[in-house]
Inverse folding.
């Protein structure tokens, strides 16, 4: 049995911890998401393990509920971006010609504008809700996935087994899902971890700027924004969600690196 390296174990532990807390938030959170249970910025105690926030809400409960929102939005946006980006990238590589040119130039146009600016413009005119956030983040991030999946698929489409599938008369979707996708998993798995981390940072940034998750819902970026004034007075309430964001990003990256090393055998293509 292959031993899991220590960095991967650490990454798996923290990733499982955060995802488990997000899934079972309603059972783990001592208080409600917006329930006021004390005074402003109370220190850590037996009643409030992480203290209270700027208006007296339990920080541990806010962190658990906020983690659920942050992870859900980031994971959904990542799935959407990979679903759109990889399929369109594979399709552009297989189809070629004007289809490839149109899709590639459209992606180049979208990538020429910074994602944060595009998101701020769109969210300033649309009602900010979780579905809108997921769609905006997923569409903007799908451009990066498109570029990667197209580049990988272009190399795979010239392989003998893909040419053999074409000669057998297989349809393009069959070639994409049965020939290209299995052999493109290695870079896509690594990129998925990075895209999820980017999505966590992206939604946290939007919430910090006031155009992300809206009250009464909580997310880690919003918790930082709500408690940032406390840093001036030596209160660490804003640093707790910042640490959670950083540790989640590092742990997911450690897991993605380990999975990438385990799947390198896919690089050689089908045997």
């Amino acid at each position: 049995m292959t031993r899991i390296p220590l960095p991967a174990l650490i990454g798996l532990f923290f990733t499982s911890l955060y995802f488990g807390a997000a899934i079972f938030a309603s059972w783990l959170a001592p208080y409600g998401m917006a329930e006021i249970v004390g005074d402003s910025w109370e220190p850590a105690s037996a009643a409030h393990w992480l203290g209270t926030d700027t208006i007296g809400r339990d920080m541990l409960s806010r962190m658990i509920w906020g983690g659920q929102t942050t992870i859900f939005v980031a994971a959904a946006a990542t799935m959407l971006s990979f679903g759109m980006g990889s399929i369109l990238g594979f399709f552009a590589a297989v189809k070629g010609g004007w289809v490839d040119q149109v899709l590639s130039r459209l992606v180049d146009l979208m990538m020429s504008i910074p994602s944060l600016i595009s998101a701020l413009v769109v969210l300033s005119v649309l009602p900010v809700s979780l579905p809108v956030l997921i769609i905006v983040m997923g569409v903007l991030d799908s451009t990066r996935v498109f570029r990667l999946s197209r580049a990988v698929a272009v190399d795979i489409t010239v392989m003998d087994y893909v040419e053999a599938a074409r000669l057998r008369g297989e349809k393009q979707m069959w070639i994409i899902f049965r020939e290209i996708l299995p052999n493109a998993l290695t870079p896509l798995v690594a990129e998925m971890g990075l895209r999820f981390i980017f999505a966590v940072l992206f939604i946290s940034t939007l919430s910090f700027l006031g155009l992300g998750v809206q009250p009464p819902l909580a997310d880690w970026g919003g918790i930082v924004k709500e408690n940032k004034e406390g840093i001036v007075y030596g209160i660490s309430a804003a640093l707790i969600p910042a640490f959670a964001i950083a540790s989640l990003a590092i742990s997911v990256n450690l897991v993605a690196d380990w999975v990438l090393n385990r799947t390198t055998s896919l690089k050689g293509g089908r045997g």
Notes: Residues 265-271 have pLDDT under 50 and may be disordered. Residues 92 and 102 are 9 Å apart (CA to CA). The chain has one domain: 6-25+56-268. The two ends are 24 Å apart (CA to CA).
